[in-house]
Amino acid sequence: MKTSSLVWFLLSLACVCIATDTYTQKECLTEKHTYNSCQKVFCDPWKRCVDGKCICKPPYQCPKNKTMGVCTESQRTFLTYCQLKSAECSNAAYRFASNSPCKGKFEISVKKRNGNIVKNNGTVLIKLPGDTKEFPVCPAKWTITEANVACKQLGFPQGALSEPLKASFKEDVQGQHTECLHVTCRGTETSMAECIMKKDTVSENLWAAVNCYKEKRDCTDDEFTCVNEKCIPAEHACNGDDNCGDRSDELCCSDCRNSFHCSSDICIPKHYVCNGQMDCLKGEDEAKCKVEGSEGEGSENRENNEGKDHNLKGERSENNNDDVEPQVPQDKKTDLVNAVNFDIEAEIKLIKESISSVSCGIPVKQPDIKRFKRIIGGTKAKENQFPWQVAIKDGAKVNCGGIYIGGCWVLTAAHCVRADQPHKYRVIIELLDRLSVSENVDSFPVKTVKVHENYKSGTYENDIALLEVVNIYKEPACMQVDNNLVPACVPWSTHLFKTGDTCVVSGWGREEGFTKVFHLKWGNINLMNNCTSIYKDRFLNGMECAGTYDGSIDACKGDSGGPLICYDANNVAYVWGVVSWGENCGVAGFPGVYSKVAYYFEWISRHVGRALISKYNI
């Protein structure tokens, strides 16, 4: 680990994202992110992330736990809601209608004040399956989110206009309806039957209304252009509400209007915070809820959802047999009157919890240190502090580091290895001091070396490689046998961490003056926005800059192939970069350059298998 004391890199302060206004980011908007962009959001559990897009899973990939049977509009039954949504993802004919046994159709209509049915502009009425009565929708809590779902079900894919969302009705019509339905949707539903509904008494001369969007025109300068070509008022972007209907107005926001700002620059409604489901990629919307508690609406959401979890988990354990029809908890029968008499929001949470998750990024034995307290150059690492750090022995020397990512696989830099000489290398784990190797330190012979096929040694472009070690213990855990080795998580999104985030680099590289280092050392450095202004045409796609403003922490010769680790809001470690190259060592104005691992997620997954590195449902 090299050190220096010069002042540098103040010019990086000028390298900020250029925004179209105070909130939206022009550079990001060109990428046309929507709710199906897994670079920005989590995919629904019936989809998976491939090349940055959420695509349909086959139904058999849904969790097999028995939860509840559900019906389509054509009266076809599926064992679970996830299986139905997976089938509908590929074929719209399988739209959800009710729980099983099938009770009939779920119907939605729009009417004018005189009671005439219209196509797109009027008050909303709902007929529940198995019921002949029509219910108006209560105006309270009826927002653009719910209106979008209604319009999409009615055949308007761009959703609804933000006004009007309420409409008065004639007194002679009022007497026909004494009850209304409170409707709450997430926004991604294809049928209002999936929304949560509760009965209430009609109390005022208003019903919920929709005005479905059907315009085809160029947006004005005062409007935001959605990815689906819908035009919305510019001030409606970055407010947490899905005004576009495809969420494109909330995914490129440097700041948020009266909503919660995720570090990946997306805006979510405030009531999503502490609701028991992670909506921000780094999990900051849920990270502090259990430890510090929350005030107001978020705290109530966490408390309520914990109660729902208890009921659902109990129900699942009692109904794990596919032949047994799950029973709706008694406390829900009186509250919920939607098509399935079930809290589908809690159902989705249960599905997510049923999907297996990769265990990574958390040391088995936590070292007694405080991370990120202050920037310290060249601090000696403690035992188990970086349980994913490995050393790569080339013949008799350790010239490079590597990162354990699970199974029999280690990530390193392409310039550290040669694909045709795997027999030359051994991977050493749990190594702290190169001069005093413990008897307990394991080493693994290398079976295969996979260098990126487009690696260019002259420019360090695509400087990334994988080592597959020999499974010497012949155990499924491969390298994780009788040791404290832990894989670092592999990031799937290039938006997971960003400029200014503090991360950790570690290795056995040279110090200032190229003094040899024998003990594993580490230091905190900051991610930099862009190094094109410094390295000109040498800074290429797939590279990441990181360092400190005074050059006091940097990677150097011998650190190559080692990890640049960033931590999410739950202190889970992700290998954000692989030490690649730089101009000199510890010189102000010349930060280190790393291979950006998220950029190579698909390449890595093709070689090691997606299941090995997919921490979430991707």
Word description of this protein:
Helix content is 14%, strand content 24%. With 618 residues, it is an alpha+beta fold. Among the domains are: 10-17 and 488-598, Beta Barrel (Thrombin, subunit H), CATH 2.40.10; 31-105 and 269-354, Wheat Germ Agglutinin (Isolectin 2), domain 1; 107-211, Mac-2 Binding Protein (Roll), CATH 3.10.250. Strands 6, 7, 8, 9, 10 and 13 form a 6-stranded antiparallel beta sheet that branches. The longest helix has 22 residues, at 297-318. It is elongated and about 90 Å long. The model is unreliable at 2-20, 291-334 and 369-376 (pLDDT under 50).
Individual helix count: 11
Low-confidence stretches: 2-20, 291-334, 369-376
The coarse overall form would be elongated
**What average pLDDT do the residues reach?**
82
Output the CATH class name of the domain at 31-105 and 269-354.
Alpha Beta
- Biggest sheet descriptor: 6 strands, antiparallel
The N- and C-terminal alpha carbons lie at a distance of 35 Å
CATH fold-level name of the domain at 31-105 and 269-354 = Wheat Germ Agglutinin (Isolectin 2), domain 1
Task: Tell me the helix content.
Answer: 10-25%
Instruction: Using the CA coordinates, give the radius of gyration.
Output: 27 Å
So, CATH architecture of the domain at 31-105 and 269-354? 2-Layer Sandwich
Given the helix and strand composition, which structural class is it? alpha+beta
Question: What's the number of extended β-strand segments?
Answer: 30
The proportion of residues in beta strands is 15-25%
- Quaternary status: single chain
